[in-house]
Amino acid sequence: MRRPLVPALGACLLAASWAAPADDLYSGASTYLDLGRYRMPFRYPDGDHEGHVGEFGVAYDVPLGGDMHGGLQGGYAVLDVADEPQPTAGSLDGRYLGLMLRYEGSEGDYLNMSGEFSYTWHDVNGGVFAAPASEITWYESWLALGPTLRYGRLRLMLGGYYQYVEGSETDRLPARVLDFHAPQRTGAYLGFLVYLDPANSVGLYATEGARRGVRLVFRRDF
Question: Is 13 contained in some domain?
Answer without folding.
Answer: no
